[in-house]
Amino acid sequence: MANDNTASDIDRVWELMKKIGFAMLVTRDGDKLRARPMSAYLVRDENVIYFLTDARRHMDEEIARNPQVNLSFANAGSQKYVSISGSAVISNDRAKIKQLFSTPAKAWWDSADDPNIRVLKITPEDAEFWDSPGTLTSYVKMTAAAFTGARPDLGDHHKVAL
User: Which of 37, 95, 91, 90 is nearest to 66 (CA)?
Assistant: First the structure.
Protein backbone atom coordinates (compact mmCIF):
# COMPACT_ATOMS: atom_id res chain seq x y z
CA MET A 1 0.00 0.00 0.00
CA ALA A 2 1.35 3.37 -0.95
CA ASN A 3 0.96 6.43 1.23
CA ASP A 4 1.34 8.94 -1.58
CA ASN A 5 -0.58 12.13 -2.14
CA THR A 6 -0.22 12.10 -5.89
CA ALA A 7 -2.69 13.96 -8.05
CA SER A 8 -3.71 10.70 -9.70
CA ASP A 9 -4.61 9.16 -6.32
CA ILE A 10 -6.70 12.19 -5.40
CA ASP A 11 -8.35 12.06 -8.83
CA ARG A 12 -9.10 8.37 -8.33
CA VAL A 13 -10.75 9.01 -4.94
CA TRP A 14 -13.14 11.55 -6.49
CA GLU A 15 -13.79 9.33 -9.54
CA LEU A 16 -14.64 6.33 -7.37
CA MET A 17 -16.96 8.37 -5.13
CA LYS A 18 -18.75 9.76 -8.18
CA LYS A 19 -19.10 6.34 -9.79
CA ILE A 20 -20.44 4.72 -6.60
CA GLY A 21 -22.71 7.66 -5.68
CA PHE A 22 -24.00 6.38 -2.34
CA ALA A 23 -22.20 6.28 0.98
CA MET A 24 -22.80 4.99 4.45
CA LEU A 25 -22.50 8.07 6.66
CA VAL A 26 -21.12 7.20 10.11
CA THR A 27 -21.68 9.59 13.01
CA ARG A 28 -21.19 9.29 16.76
CA ASP A 29 -24.23 9.01 19.00
CA GLY A 30 -22.61 9.21 22.41
CA ASP A 31 -20.45 6.08 22.68
CA LYS A 32 -22.14 4.39 19.73
CA LEU A 33 -21.44 4.67 16.03
CA ARG A 34 -24.45 5.07 13.71
CA ALA A 35 -24.43 4.50 9.97
CA ARG A 36 -27.04 5.31 7.38
CA PRO A 37 -27.06 5.24 3.55
CA MET A 38 -26.99 8.64 1.86
CA SER A 39 -26.91 9.91 -1.73
CA ALA A 40 -23.79 12.03 -2.29
CA TYR A 41 -23.50 15.31 -4.21
CA LEU A 42 -19.81 15.83 -4.96
CA VAL A 43 -18.32 19.28 -5.55
CA ARG A 44 -14.66 18.62 -6.07
CA ASP A 45 -13.77 22.26 -6.84
CA GLU A 46 -14.88 23.11 -3.29
CA ASN A 47 -13.43 19.89 -1.78
CA VAL A 48 -16.90 19.22 -0.38
CA ILE A 49 -19.42 16.39 -0.35
CA TYR A 50 -23.03 17.42 0.21
CA PHE A 51 -26.04 15.41 1.33
CA LEU A 52 -29.63 16.33 1.89
CA THR A 53 -30.96 15.22 5.25
CA ASP A 54 -34.10 15.61 7.34
CA ALA A 55 -34.24 17.77 10.46
CA ARG A 56 -36.67 15.28 12.04
CA ARG A 57 -33.84 12.74 12.32
CA HIS A 58 -31.30 12.91 15.13
CA MET A 59 -28.27 13.46 12.93
CA ASP A 60 -28.24 17.21 13.62
CA GLU A 61 -27.65 16.68 17.34
CA GLU A 62 -25.04 13.96 16.72
CA ILE A 63 -23.03 16.21 14.40
CA ALA A 64 -23.36 19.21 16.71
CA ARG A 65 -21.81 17.12 19.51
CA ASN A 66 -19.13 15.55 17.32
CA PRO A 67 -18.62 16.85 13.77
CA GLN A 68 -16.07 14.15 12.84
CA VAL A 69 -17.67 11.67 10.44
CA ASN A 70 -16.79 8.81 8.12
CA LEU A 71 -18.20 8.11 4.68
CA SER A 72 -17.89 4.60 3.29
CA PHE A 73 -18.51 4.23 -0.44
CA ALA A 74 -18.69 0.62 -1.64
CA ASN A 75 -19.35 -1.23 -4.86
CA ALA A 76 -18.84 -4.86 -3.90
CA GLY A 77 -19.63 -6.09 -7.42
CA SER A 78 -16.68 -4.27 -8.93
CA GLN A 79 -14.56 -4.45 -5.76
CA LYS A 80 -14.20 -0.65 -5.46
CA TYR A 81 -14.22 1.03 -2.04
CA VAL A 82 -13.52 4.49 -0.61
CA SER A 83 -13.41 5.54 3.04
CA ILE A 84 -13.47 9.27 3.80
CA SER A 85 -12.75 10.91 7.16
CA GLY A 86 -13.84 14.49 7.54
CA SER A 87 -15.83 17.10 9.38
CA ALA A 88 -19.52 17.84 8.98
CA VAL A 89 -21.76 20.88 9.29
CA ILE A 90 -25.54 21.00 8.94
CA SER A 91 -27.25 24.10 7.63
CA ASN A 92 -30.63 25.34 6.49
CA ASP A 93 -29.24 27.01 3.36
CA ARG A 94 -32.41 27.11 1.25
CA ALA A 95 -30.57 28.14 -1.94
CA LYS A 96 -28.19 25.17 -1.63
CA ILE A 97 -31.13 22.85 -0.92
CA LYS A 98 -32.85 23.99 -4.12
CA GLN A 99 -29.60 23.56 -6.05
CA LEU A 100 -29.08 20.00 -4.77
CA PHE A 101 -32.71 18.85 -4.91
CA SER A 102 -33.03 16.18 -7.60
CA THR A 103 -34.88 12.98 -8.44
CA PRO A 104 -33.38 10.90 -5.57
CA ALA A 105 -34.50 13.56 -3.07
CA LYS A 106 -38.09 13.25 -4.31
CA ALA A 107 -38.22 9.82 -2.71
CA TRP A 108 -38.08 11.56 0.70
CA TRP A 109 -39.61 15.02 0.20
CA ASP A 110 -42.30 16.43 -2.12
CA SER A 111 -40.29 19.51 -3.03
CA ALA A 112 -37.21 21.53 -2.19
CA ASP A 113 -39.50 23.84 -0.20
CA ASP A 114 -40.07 21.21 2.50
CA PRO A 115 -39.04 23.00 5.73
CA ASN A 116 -37.52 19.79 7.15
CA ILE A 117 -34.75 19.48 4.54
CA ARG A 118 -31.24 20.37 5.68
CA VAL A 119 -27.88 20.42 3.91
CA LEU A 120 -25.12 18.29 5.31
CA LYS A 121 -21.71 19.54 4.18
CA ILE A 122 -18.75 17.21 4.62
CA THR A 123 -15.23 18.54 4.20
CA PRO A 124 -13.05 15.49 3.55
CA GLU A 125 -9.66 15.41 5.25
CA ASP A 126 -8.33 11.93 4.48
CA ALA A 127 -9.29 9.13 2.15
CA GLU A 128 -8.37 5.52 1.68
CA PHE A 129 -9.35 3.59 -1.40
CA TRP A 130 -9.23 0.04 -2.69
CA ASP A 131 -9.51 -0.32 -6.45
CA SER A 132 -9.41 -3.92 -7.59
CA PRO A 133 -9.78 -5.31 -11.12
CA GLY A 134 -13.13 -6.88 -10.20
CA THR A 135 -14.58 -9.86 -8.41
CA LEU A 136 -13.79 -12.61 -10.92
CA THR A 137 -10.22 -11.47 -11.52
CA SER A 138 -9.65 -11.09 -7.76
CA TYR A 139 -10.92 -14.61 -7.07
CA VAL A 140 -8.67 -16.06 -9.78
CA LYS A 141 -5.65 -14.20 -8.33
CA MET A 142 -6.49 -15.33 -4.77
CA THR A 143 -6.87 -18.94 -5.90
CA ALA A 144 -3.54 -18.82 -7.74
CA ALA A 145 -1.88 -17.27 -4.66
CA ALA A 146 -3.30 -20.01 -2.44
CA PHE A 147 -1.57 -22.61 -4.60
CA THR A 148 1.72 -20.75 -5.07
CA GLY A 149 2.04 -19.24 -1.60
CA ALA A 150 2.51 -15.77 -3.14
CA ARG A 151 0.52 -12.71 -2.16
CA PRO A 152 -2.12 -11.81 -4.76
CA ASP A 153 -2.05 -8.40 -6.45
CA LEU A 154 -5.63 -7.30 -5.94
CA GLY A 155 -5.32 -3.78 -7.27
CA ASP A 156 -4.53 -0.41 -5.78
CA HIS A 157 -4.82 0.54 -2.11
CA HIS A 158 -3.76 4.04 -1.13
CA LYS A 159 -4.14 6.54 1.70
CA VAL A 160 -4.58 10.12 0.50
CA ALA A 161 -4.71 13.47 2.27
CA LEU A 162 -7.40 15.67 0.83
Answer: 90
Sign of CA dihedral 84, 90, 96, 97: positive
pLDDT digits (tens, 9 = 90+) for 78-106: 889 999 999 999 999 999 999 999 988 99
Mapping DSSP to helix (H, G, I), strand (E, B) and coil, where does residue 19 land?
helix
> What digits encode the pLDDT tens for the residues 9-21?
999 999 999 999 9
Query: Which residue type is seen at 31?
Result: D
Using DSSP's 3-state secondary structure scheme, residue 14 falls into helix
Q: Domain extents for the chain?
A: 7-161
User: Top-level CATH class of 7-161?
Assistant: mainly beta
**In contact, 110 and 157? CB cutoff 8 Å:** no
